[in-house]
Amino acid sequence: MVSNPVHRLPFLPGTSFKDSTKTAFHRSQTLSYKNGYAVVRRPTVGIGGERLQVNQLSQAELDELANKAPILTYGQPKQAPPAEFIPAHVAFDKKVLKFDAYFQEDVPMSTEEHYRIRQVNIYYYLEDDSMSVMEPVVENSGIPQGKLIKRQRLTKNDQGDHYHWKDLNRGINLTIYGRTFRVVDCDRFTQVFLESQGIELNPPEKMALDPYTELRKQPLRKYVTPSDFDQLKQFLTFDKQVLRFYAIWDDTDSMFGECRTYIIHYYLMDDTVEIREVHERNNGRDPFPLLMNRQRMPKVLVKNAKNFPQCVLEISDQEVLEWYTAKDFIVGKPLTILGRTFFIYDCDPFTRQYYKEKFGISDLPRIDVSEKEPPPVKQELPPYNGFGLIEDSVQNCFVLIPKAPKKDVIKMLVNDNKVLRYLAALESPIPEDKDRRFVFSYFLASDMISIFEPPVRNSGIIGGKYLGRTKVAKPSSTAEDPIYYGPTDFFIGAVIEVFGHRFIILDTDDYVLKYMENNAAQYSPEALLSIRNRIQKQEAPAPELENKQTREDPPGVQELEALIDTIQKQLKDHPCKDNIHEAFQIYDQEASGFVDKERFFKICDSLNLPIDDSLIKELIRLCSHGEDKINYYDFVRAFSN
């Protein structure tokens, strides 16, 4: 293939011309797609596939230009021999950076030190970038010392990066395996090496000292035994002599606290105190005999001994200003021992005799600390929420699984299918409610009430069931102690309030009249009078005769005659006594028809008359003449045939 001669011409001004042999003039693409997105790319060739101006030289030509050295006056310079390669483990062999550091360690179980300062040396080995931590051995320290961290590469963060000598400096904190070391200084070689590498070192710091180690360097304290007290004499004199006190610890103010009984022993031989627990049978506690072992009891501690761990170490006179003695244990006074307050209520006879001879205290009476039974807690029911019957809701307060309240089965069997019906009107200020009538049905078997409103055509009010079967409480009763309406509350003219609506009883059926006659003792005089008036209206004569009789008889006579007729109808099935009139005439010598009240009631008791009946009481009231006299003529008429 013959190359194009045009390419051989030098590219000089005046010699550039258009290549007539060129046939390709397309441009290379500058856009491409990657993962579905259009991205820009740099063209590698020019128009028609020509080489770009920046890439006209090949890689071989570029390498030749890079290695070509200029020719000097005296010829080509001699190239220096390449430096010999030395590996790191040879170049940095036995070259170690040394830093002085310390770390702080907590001491929780000690009275003389709360923390400890431990001095260490940190070594960094340049040959493999490994580190080690060494602690100088301190004589009689009681701490395992020496190599704390063996030689290894140490990580400095959670990403797995390792410590490098570029990360080390003075006055910094190094965290190694959760323990923080404070670097305070380094040796001369370390300082020269780091400065030669361009690292600016922080000024050195002063090494922290261990306070307990410095305390041990002080001279020992000398103790002098007092000469005015002989412990041996006390031991020989009071050997086997023990004061016994009976005490209680009342912790009922705290949660789950209780009142417990203890026995306190005070040993006179060495002034030690022992507290024993008093266990009862089946008390549910572990049978530990001692609450506190025999020891001397501190009464007043020094101010700087508040944090002294008394439960671990023994205390001495250095931490205590005053100890408990025998004079501090007095019957009838509280005593605080190690934060627990005991009340001493009794002691044994030897203790009483000792206090009488030693301190002159002869009156140590026993105090009664027996627990008094608390007053019975009255069970209060929660307020009624208005749903269902109260008897059903109350069962949830008595048992976890409520049961249905017990029913009077005898009453249900006797009064089965017995219903009292009444006609009532609604007491309402609305004019449309004045003509509405309701039928009350009282079920004697369950004491429930239902209300039915007969539908009236073209009245605009939908009739039907107004109230389903339920018990209705009286408005004067409370939700906790409800009083329900009974059959004695229903009579003509009575006002019945049902859940805020007031109804007036207008009429009853014949069965109600018969029921009231058979159970007249249960009804009030007002109820019986209303029924009697209804009967009189039904049996009343013509209006002319009625008006004439009304003009002739006063109202009291009409009421008396109606009551006498009612009593005679009630007693028609019972035999009447014929000697009632003769019994009253014996004491009425003047035949006036009146006897005093005291004599009247004695005669009634002798004849076994039912004076406690409501109708009889009403009859006695109508027959009373003044305050002391009773007309027995009218009274006897009610019991005559």
TrEMBL record:
It comes from Canis lupus dingo. GO terms for biological process: cerebral cortex cell migration; cilium-dependent cell motility; mitotic cytokinesis; mitotic spindle organization; regulation of cell division. Residues 575-610 form the EF-hand domain. This is EF-hand domain-containing protein 1. Microtubule inner protein component of sperm flagellar doublet microtubules. Interacts with the C-terminus of CACNA1E. Interacts with alpha-tubulin. The keyword Transport does not apply. It comes from the Eukaryota. It is found in: Cytoplasm, Cytoskeleton, Flagellum axoneme; Cytoplasm, Cytoskeleton, Microtubule organizing center, Centrosome; Cytoplasm, Cytoskeleton, Spindle pole.
